[in-house]
Amino acid sequence: MDNSGIYVGLDIGTTSIKVIIAESVQGQLNIIGVGSDRSKGMNRGVVVDIDQVAAAIQNAVHQAEQKANVSISDVYAGIPANMLSIEPCQGMIAVSDESKEITDQDVRNVAAAALIRNLPPEREIIDLVPDEFIVDGFDGIKDPRGMIGVRLEMHGIVFTSPKTVIHNIKKSIAKAGLNLKSLIVEPLALGKVALTDGEQDFGTILIDLGGGQSTAAVIHDHKLKFTQVDQEGGEYITKDISVVLNTSFGNAEKLKRDYGNANTDVTSETEEFPVETVGQTDAVLVSEHYLSEIIEARAEQILTRLGTALDRVKAFDLPGGIVITGGVTALPGIADLVAEMYDRSVKLYIPDQMGLRHPSFAQAFGLVTYVSRLSEVDRLVHTPISSATADYVSSTRTTQTTTTATNQTVKKAKPADHTMKDDLTPNETATQQNADATAKPKKEKKKRGESIRSFLNNFFE
């Protein structure tokens, strides 16, 4: 299948919104436009103010359009793994054509049959990924079209998420004047670019350390098997620096970027830098080592909670090691800290495309790459979900148009708001949001920065 065309990936993050415009020509993906804007109206990966998010999306899209010199209307957006549920599904139909040759419509019909399930009223289907098709008992088929058969079956994986999360993302995109083609599970897309084929096959842990939250995913046999979200990220590191050093959030962010290191072992206690503190005229000198202790204390807490959840599903037994990405991984020493805490080999993923050579762009790049690589069968299977999304967008625009027209009429008349049930994660039904923070990490680690940790715990209680 020739997937040539323009693809637009929209990454709605807690700290920033990123847009990537990519052009696919004969299997080669070229980045032609990039846009980024500071997030407003987001909290821990979830939209909390639709108007503010819509405005930020418009700004990021406008930047990307100017650089690419194209006008865009269709986007593929990522959805975070918050309370994501991963479950196997299957459907079966009788082949409809008189000749008994399987057609595109049969693939759509069997996908629709696989989606017939009793969902709780608060959840909605995001995506359906086919695993195999079975024609009259013959399994292992990836594309059944053109084959002769009486009975067609499909086995796949269905992803569901809370309706509130999905609705707010869709509403924000529609309010920004864009057409949402599809929602894509973020760890699923990220794994396609951050992991090699062998890592996806044998099993690897993928950790995305973002600004608002941190996500661990397990990918094995080319399937997303498990996700765990920790509701803390880079912003919490910045807040810690701000509180401990008594400086503004902006200054704390600058200190983190300019002098920060997540590994205290490689920092110096004699190297100092000035810090503007609240209530004092003169700057205070702070050592590089002290700043590193603050950063490391929070990073250890995040990694400990993620490690507890990963250990519970025996993810550390997989041979692929650990791959980390996300904005926080730009901090020096973070890979060493992860490797020391988990006692596993760690690799840092950074996109190598021009204009994207920063780990914070990994997710947005994953979205356009994932979409451009979808096969024709993948797209057919997704049709029932895409149709529902299109109906939603259409109804939303109709409502907005009707509301605008009504308001105008009123003015004239007046006087001047997770885990997959398989061998890797038995007896679990959804992504666990709050791991036991008191459990021991994979590897016993020497205590550091106890005074910092104690201070922060007391302050935030």
Automatic annotation (TrEMBL):
InterPro entries to which the protein is assigned, alphabetical: ATPase_NBD (IPR043129), Cell_div_FtsA (IPR020823), FtsA/MreB (IPR050696), SHS2_FtsA (IPR003494)
Keywords: Cell cycle, Cell division, Cell membrane, Membrane
Bias type Low complexity, positions: 396-409
SMART domains: FtsA
Spans through the membrane: none
Subcellular location: Cell membrane
Chain positions covered by the region annotation Disordered: 396-461
Gene3D superfamilies in alphabetical order: 3.30.1490.110, 3.30.420.40
CDD domains, A to Z: ASKHA_NBD_FtsA (cd24048)
GO biological process, alphabetically ordered: cell division
Pfam families, per database record: FtsA, SHS2_FTSA
Keyword hit for Cell division: yes
Positions with biased composition (Basic and acidic residues): 414-424
Function description: Cell division protein that is involved in the assembly of the Z ring. May serve as a membrane anchor for the Z ring.
Protein family (similarity comment): Belongs to the FtsA/MreB family.
Subunit description: Self-interacts. Interacts with FtsZ.
Official protein name in the record: Cell division protein FtsA
